[in-house]
């Protein structure tokens, strides 16, 4: 087959899959053929982030500095480097975990529980104590899958309502400025984190990013002393977008969403928040339900007017001044204030766009191209009247590309450090 030269490193991967696709056993189903192709490509082949672009957070960075680094570099997470480890230490000793906006938000919320019990080390009137009075006491439970979720003693909107000045108080406090990211790392599910080896396969990578809910995967060499690459759901989506036009991709990508069983979640299960509810309610729901974002619905409850993701908590922590005139911050106030702030700062962001939508008869290729071009992580499915009836995430799409063979991972997870019952991060 004669094709144009690959237009990018990601497209080169697509051509490699195409070569494998053409020689795959003819008796295999299309799904089995894709699995077989991805199983034959090592993770080392995935286009590498330039070493200078692998952002690391030193363990002695404060929460304030950490949020600033993540926000400035427009990333969701970064590995924490142990500043006390020697330069020639192995990666297992050099890193102590991965920090993300969600983890920082979860830790701040967990302090309300500690403060309620008098163990947070902060006095009455402090930001943490104030957080208790606004949010109620948080406890943590572990699901059967091992993921930690939060549960609150107070589920009312009033409990999640804070004035605009609250975040100025929090972010100017010594507590926020002096707490080190290394001090909140606690115990992670993997020590220091789950990493791919360069010899692992694309199939392993894709399964971890979908079925096993990983959002990013560091790649290391066996016995190496640094992170060679970081593969994210977004980078996989870009790879797929670069494969448009190749026969193997078109055979899958031209399928309609409904043919692939998308959206996965039933409309009644869609996690959402109304425009007049407090914005902290949105972040609270994300943590409780284990989702990375949710739609903000209009007063009718039928149409989405915006989207809030877990990383948007950065705007509460990096630009608290934009809310100081608000007695309470509703989700609509949050959307309006952040959009105005971004426009004044001349920053580009998906936050400035209208809600990106699709319909069930769109193809998976259409969705991949939209998600990649808009640099977003979810798209909302609407009916002919524009009413929101579902959501499709990057993880959903990847999960439809591959399937896990029986006993595939074997002892892959052996040696994993269990998550302690009292873990909060």
UniProtKB/TrEMBL annotation:
The scientific name of the source species is Panicum virgatum
Q: Which domain of life is it from?
A: Eukaryota
Among PANTHER family, the record links this protein to:
AMP-ACTIVATED PROTEIN KINASE, GAMMA REGULATORY SUBUNIT (PTHR13780), CBS DOMAIN-CONTAINING PROTEIN (PTHR13780:SF36)
Question: InterPro entries annotated for this entry?
Answer: AMPK_gamma/SDS23_families, CBS_dom, CBS_dom_sf
The UniProt entry, under SUPFAM superfamilies, shows: CBS-domain pair
On whether Ribosomal protein is a keyword of this UniProt record, the answer is: no
Report domain CBS positions. Answer: 265-325, 348-409
Identify the keywords attached in UniProt to this record, alphabetized: CBS domain, Repeat
This protein is called CBS domain-containing protein
């Amino acid at each position: 087959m004669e094709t144009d030269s690959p237009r990018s490193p990601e497209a080169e991967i697509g051509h490699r899959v195409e070569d494998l696709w053409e020689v795959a056993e003819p008796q295999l189903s299309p799904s089995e053929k894709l699995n077989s192709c991805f199983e034959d490509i090592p993770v080392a082949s995935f286009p590498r982030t330039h070493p200078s672009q692998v952002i690391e957070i030193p363990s002695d960075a404060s929460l304030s500095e950490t949020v600033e680094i993540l926000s400035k570099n427009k990333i969701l997470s970064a590995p924490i480097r142990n500043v006390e480890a020697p330069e020639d230490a192995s990666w297992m000793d050099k890193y102590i975990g991965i920090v993300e906006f969600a983890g920082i938000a979860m830790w701040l919320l967990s302090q309300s529980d500690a403060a309620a019990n008098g163990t947070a080390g902060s006095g009455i009137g402090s930001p943490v104590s104030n957080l208790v009075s606004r949010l109620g006491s948080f406890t943590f439970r572990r699901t059967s899958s091992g993921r930690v979720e939060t549960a609150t003693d107070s589920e009312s909107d009033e409990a999640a309502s804070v004035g605009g000045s609250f975040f100025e108080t929090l972010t100017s406090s010594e507590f926020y400025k002096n707490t080190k990211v290394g001090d909140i790392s606690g115990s992670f599910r993997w020590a220091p984190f789950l990493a791919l080896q360069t010899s692992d396969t694309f199939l392993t990578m894709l399964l971890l990013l979908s079925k096993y809910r990983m959002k990013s995967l560091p790649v290391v060499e066996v016995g190496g002393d640094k992170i060679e690459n970081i593969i994210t759901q977004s980078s996989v989506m870009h790879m797929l977008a670069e494969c448009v036009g190749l026969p193997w991709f078109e055979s899958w990508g031209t399928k309609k969403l409904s043919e692939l069983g998308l959206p996965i979640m039933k409309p009644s299960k869609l996690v959402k928040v109304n425009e007049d509810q407090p914005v902290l309610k949105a972040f609270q729901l994300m943590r409780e339900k284990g989702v990375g974002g949710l739609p903000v619905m209009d007063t009718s409850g039928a149409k989405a007017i915006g989207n809030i993701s877990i990383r948007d908590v950065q705007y509460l922590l990096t630009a608290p001044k934009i809310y100081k005139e608000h007695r309470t911050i509703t989700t609509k106030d949050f959307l309006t204030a952040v959009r105005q702030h971004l426009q004044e700062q001349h920053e580009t962001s998906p936050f400035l766009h209208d809600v990106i939508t699709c319909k069930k008869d769109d193809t998976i290729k259409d969705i991949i191209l939209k998600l990649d071009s808009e640099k977003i992580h979810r798209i909302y499915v609407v009916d002919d009247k524009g009413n929101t009836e579902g959501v499709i995430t990057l993880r959903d799409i990847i999960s439809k590309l591959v399937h896990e063979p029986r006993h595939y991972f074997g002892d892959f997870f052996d040696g994993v450090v269990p998550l302690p019952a009292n873990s909060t991060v």
